[in-house]
Amino acid sequence: MASAAPPAGQTKGQSGTRTANADLGAWLAVAAGTLGALMATLDISIVNSALPTIQGEIGATGTEGAWVATAYLVAEIIIIPLSAWLERLLGLRRFLLIAVTLFTGFSVLCGISTTLNMMIIGRVGQGFTGGAMIPTAQTIIAQRLPPHQQSIGTAMFGLVATLGPLLGPLVGGWLAENVSWHYAFFLNVPISALLIVLLVVGLPDQKAKLHLIRQADWFGIAGLALGMGGLTVFLEEGSREEWFASPLIQKMAIMSVIGFLLLAYGQATAARPVIKLRLLLDRQFGSVALMGVALGVVLYGTSYAIPQFLAAIADYNALQSGKVVLLSGIPSLLMMPLVPFLVRKLDIRIAVALGMGIMGLSAYMETGLTLESSGGDFTDSQLMRGVGQILGMLFLSQAVVQSVPAEDAGDASGLFNAMRNMGGSFALAGISILQQSRVWLHSRRLEETLNANAPAVQDYVTGMGRAVGNPDAGMRLLGQQIQGQALVMTYNDIFFAMSLVTIAVIPLVLFLRPLPRNASLAAAH
């Protein structure tokens, strides 16, 4: 005889016991976690399209302006592995309330910044506190929702995590063009106020466990901060400072070495290391982590490079650039309802190879840019990138959880997220290096093809001078054309490098194991 249907508001678990549906408080907590993750992921890229305007107002050069984006990512890399320990130390609600309050304060600091140093301090603070809200959102879903409803929370989080970085340039661009770039940061104030209310209502208070301070992997924490911070400065500033000829670069190199040695010491001696690097020794997880780095290179690299190109070459404003970046979110949004079906039916090796291949091809399609290129030239590649992104991010996130023991799932997720952000940080540093070195190289090569005494060159220069009514302006205009062509060629090199990185990791899919048929949907960021 068929078993009786469970009462309204309840469902039957696999063991036959009845599992109650989540109450209103639980869903308010999930809404709070999702809203916090949206705010944090939005602020990763909210400055990208408005960056040319911000640079002008705070007196930063193009290469220095990259720090406005990089500072946030580096701080996230450091805080994400620490989030689980801080949550246990302070209690989830108290930890999030502190993070949201500080995030608001640092957002205001960014909004009132008048110098590059002031902006970088604010962005580092945003990264530390905003990064804490991303993994804790997944914790809320796991703790506050019953198993049969966690897929709903996971889908909400997945949608937010995917669209946040894509909406950032559009929101920031609209505010920069219609209000002021300052409000790209002030926007966080009312959102944070709502988030605080949801946290207070939806999450129960938990007793702090301050004794855990004594058990912390302080060597690992210090090493992670010094190592990643020093390495990022080393990469960002090395080319401009002529590498080891600069005392700053020498100090950053020493700081990085000391940091990574401290991190290694913490790995060997701490009862619970700040980040379990030994997980990288697992064949499957190590492969997933390396592909996560490549994923970050393309995701964050293209969302930074495209607005910069359009502003410099096509004279796009921040809003126009933001609309181009958002195009890649359309396929992700349309494919999101298919996520459960894809996870069950599509082999992970095929899915990841296809996703990374599409992303690599989309970057390669952007290697043929010219001085006449505009936003329309990015339409096809951006739409393709959206398809590749949802396949790559979705299935790699599933592989993270399935490739390690259950007790290491939290550490693996934090390490994977940190590796992906590290890829983004490397991409921004690489873009800065290529902009400095390749523009100079291409300019010299173009100049070498021109003989100043050649009649054709003389006629061309004279003709340009006459066209603008100033015979002496011809040579200056020719120099501007050479610089413009060199800049376009440099961006072609940048997109080609991102394409190579993505294609190079595709063979790693051979180390992945198929997902179990009954695998639960893991949240992705």
What does this structure look like?
The protein has a two-stranded antiparallel ribbon. It has helices at residues 24-45, 51-58, 62-90, 92-111, 116-144, 150-178, 183-186, 188-202, 218-238, 247-269, 283-313, 318-326, 329-335, 339-345, 348-364, 379-402, 409-448, 455-467, 474-504; strands at 10-12, 18-20. With 525 residues, it is mainly alpha-helical. The radius of gyration is 25 Å and the shape is globular. It folds into three domains: 21-212, MFS general substrate transporter like domains (Growth Hormone, Chain: A), CATH 1.20.1250.20; 217-273; 282-525, Growth Hormone, Chain: A (Up-down Bundle), CATH 1.20.1250.
Domain tally? 3
Low-confidence stretches: 1-16
Helix content: over 70%
Work out the radius of gyration: 25 Å
Oligomer: single chain
Would you list the SSEs in sequence order as H and E? EEHHHHHHHHHHHHHHHHHHH
CATH class label of the largest domain: Mainly Alpha
Estimate the global geometry from the Cα principal axes. globular
User: Strand portion, in percent?
Assistant: under 5%
Q: Quote the distance from N terminus to C terminus.
A: 45 Å
Give a brief rundown of this model.
By secondary structure, this protein is an all-alpha fold. It has helices at 24-45, 51-58, 62-90, 92-111, 116-144, 150-178, 183-186, 188-202, 218-238, 247-269, 283-313, 318-326, 329-335, 339-345, 348-364, 379-402, 409-448, 455-467, 474-504, and strands at residues 10-12, 18-20. Strand 1 (10-12) and strand 2 (18-20) form a beta hairpin.
